[in-house]
Amino acid sequence: MNLLGIDIGGTKIAGGLVDMDAGRVLLRSRVPTEAEDGGPVVLRRALDLARSLVSQAREQGLGEPLAVGVGAGGQIDPVQGVVVSATDVLPGWAGTPLRQAFEDGLNLPTSVDNDVNALAVGEQRFGAGRGHNDLLYLALGTGVGGAIISGGRLHHGARGAGGELGHLVLFPDGLPCTCGGRGCLEQYANGAAYARYRQEEGDDEARAAYRLGEMLGLGLVSLTNLFDPDRIIIGGGLADLGESLLEPARRVLRERALPGGRDCPVLPAALAPDASVIGAATLGCPHPLPLSPASGCAGGRGVPAAGSTAAAPKVSPSSAPSRGGAVDGVSGTPLPPAEPEAGERGRG
């Protein structure tokens, strides 16, 4: 099954045709966002990119995608598929009816969510979180984005704002944050913080990465005590620092977290450089339809699973699988068991 994934960010719009059985990008394309042109123009560019990919898929004999997933910056109402709010990185973006625009423009069922939520479900289905129901995902870059998968489902919260992990308060009287508060994790674990640590450490990159990792670890202590995740996945540009960042974070977690979470694996994201496109495509599989062991996706909005003639029953909280069996982060559909990884918890 092939789905289309579109990622709309502040600097680029990326898209791809994704084989959802293997998590493999078959076609890919990108264009500059040129966000200063305003929301309606950015939306038109994204639609043009999507149409181009559909045409290429047809011409190359890959078939047309059965659904579309869109990951976008800003706070998203995933039910209505509308941008609720956005920062100045995407001016005029708030209020954009993404789902309606893509369904009208492509005549394909479309699902929409925040871009970091898309990254998280992609990692849960195909990457570092495969086979696990309870995950935290943090994207470290210009800011610190976050996503929560709890009991196999994305946690959106009562108002769609769940998962703002970067605004966990580390120091009540700490540095001012763009959110209007003070002392948020974002101000101690983002790109600006890394640059500040480098300057303070005489441009010693290793020492700066270590300090960044310690601050990240402090945030992970509270998050682990709150959510008790199976594993924590670190993505974003600063994840390229690798073990220089992750090992001090794990050390702080071991030393300070409650006993149950001290050994929680802290792992790098696994899907780069196609993470955003694969994650967006994964959003195209939101409904709890049967998932065969050989398939990476049961079906998107209104897309039946292979051989299905009727909608599957909804998954209620009482019938949701336990931690012993992983379920899909978007739909709650049971996922095939992951192959065991030798010594995976030893990384914590």
Describe it.
- With 348 residues, the chain is an alpha/beta fold.
- Helices cover 29% and strands 18% of the residues.
- The chain has 8 helices and 12 strands.
- Helix 6 packs across helix 7 (243-256).
- The radius of gyration is 20 Å and the shape is globular.
- Residues 287-295, 302-324 and 336-348 have low confidence and may be disordered.
- Keywords: Kinase, Transferase.
Features:
single chain; about 350 residues; alpha/beta; Nucleotidyltransferase, domain 5; 2 domains; five-stranded mixed beta sheet; 12 strands
Superfamily (CATH H level) name of the largest domain: ATPase, nucleotide binding domain
N-to-C span: 36 Å
Question: Which regions contain 5 or more consecutive residues with pLDDT less than 50?
Answer: 287-295, 302-324, 336-348
Range of helix content: 25-40%
Largest sheet: 5 strands, mixed
Helices and strands, in N-to-C order? EEEHEEEHEHEEEHHHEHEH
CATH class of the largest domain: Alpha Beta
Count of discrete alpha- or pi-helical segments spanning 4 or more residues: 8
Oligomer state equals: single chain
CATH architecture tag of the largest domain: 2-Layer Sandwich
CATH fold descriptor of the largest domain: Nucleotidyltransferase, domain 5
**What proportion of the residues form beta strands (DSSP E)?**
15-25%
Number of domains: 2
Q: Structural class, from helix and strand content?
A: alpha/beta
InterPro entries: ATPase_NBD, ROK, ROK_cs
Family: Belongs to the ROK (NagC/XylR) family.
Biased composition (Low complexity): 310-322
Enzyme class: transferase
